[in-house]
Amino acid sequence: MEDSQFLTRAGGWFAASGIQEPGGGVARYYRSDAERNQAVSTEITGYAASTFVYLHAVTGEARYLDRAVAAARFLARTAWRADLRTVPFELEPGPEGLLAYFFDCGIVARGLLAVYRETREEEFLGAARVVGEAMARDFTAEDGEMHPILKLPENRPVARDERWSRSPGCYQLKSAMAWNDLAEATGEARYGALYERALARALGAEAAFLPGHADRAKVMDRLHAYCYFLEGLWPRAGEARCAAVIRGGMDKVARYWREIAPQFERSDVVAQLLRLRIYADAVGVAPLDRAAAGQEADRLAFYQVASGDARTDGGFSFGRKGGVPLPYVNPVSTAFALQALTLWRQALAGGGQAHRHLLI
């Protein structure tokens, strides 16, 4: 696939497939077997806001900034619930009622900050601040851990279980990175202190996270979450301990991915690993292993959908199980993949935009 085609098609899927609704919210994924979008997700809209900012940065196309602003306005005006003083997981209650996730709130705040840095619209900085405040106020447990999920409106912690997304863990550092970004945007040291506390907890917990489960498919899922942890280290990647953890973490992810991929492979894990390699090289943490990165880029490109249906063409599928493609065209998979492949092409050309603020 030619370089100019891949990014144009991926960006076109984000902008014109219908995955983003007219009001700015973005669906969790498109289910190709049922030919329908899932419900709008506040987390995924946060990712989409960051993705549109990145697409605007690398292409200069105004349509992407327009879509980013629409997503940010949805997050600030619709997703944020003033009566609940937080951002729910979805707009409508699910089987467990209305829930809020610590992780999702951090992704929402980072999406708002991405659009703020591009537009300087104070509404988006203000919205990111109130989300960041809610993260600290509502999710902090007595032992200093962050509750992963709260039941609304009472802000009662939901029972934890073996699933990584329903337990606290090192992966939460990616969302805690929103506090570091708020410190930079506002100059307020208290946000930086919140990130530093989260960093210390994450570093203390990371060794136990992998493999973390006897089921190999579950380990692949946990690789996705572990990559979140490694991404959350970027604000302190220049520190010796964090740099060493990033280097060792990339090796662990690569090893487990290769072992498990024949049975179950997630495209977002491949994209995250490739991004990690390029970012690590850009900040001097580890030289880019071009042979490994090239293999990962080739594998990742395999997941871009080619069809005559605008609802799927250009997007990236979630993965394969037992060699069979899974019927999900996924915004997060597409976002991570388009960024990873763009960074890889830029690296091959001798440069690029591996800037922490642009990390989706």
Describe this structure in words.
- This protein is mainly α and about 350 residues long.
- It has a single domain, classed as Glycosyltransferase (Alpha/alpha barrel), CATH 1.50.10.10.
- Helix content is about 55%, strand content about 10%.
- It has twelve helices and eleven strands.
- A three-stranded antiparallel beta sheet has the order 3-2-11, covered by helices on one side.
- A hairpin with a 2-residue loop joins strand 9 and strand 10.
- Helix 5 packs across helix 6, helix 6 packs parallel to helix 8 and helix 11 crosses helix 12.
- The radius of gyration is 19 Å and the shape is globular.
- The model has no long low-confidence stretch (mean pLDDT about 95).
Features:
360 residues; three-stranded antiparallel sheet; mainly alpha; 12 helices; globular; Glycosyltransferase
Sequence-ordered SSE layout with sheet pairings:
Elements (H helix, E strand, L loop, with lengths): L2 H14 L9 E2 L2 E2 L4 E2 L2 E2 H18 L2 H18 L18 E4 H18 L2 H18 L9 E4 L3 E2 L15 H14 L2 H17 L10 H17 L7 H21 L3 E3 H16 L7 H12 L17 E3 L2 E2 L2 E2 L1 H18 L12
Antiparallel strand pairs: 1-4, 2-3, 2-11, 5-6, 6-7, 8-9, 9-10
Helix pairs in contact: 1-12, 2-3, 2-4, 2-12, 3-4, 3-5, 4-5, 4-6, 5-6, 6-7, 6-8, 8-9, 8-10, 9-10, 10-11, 10-12, 11-12
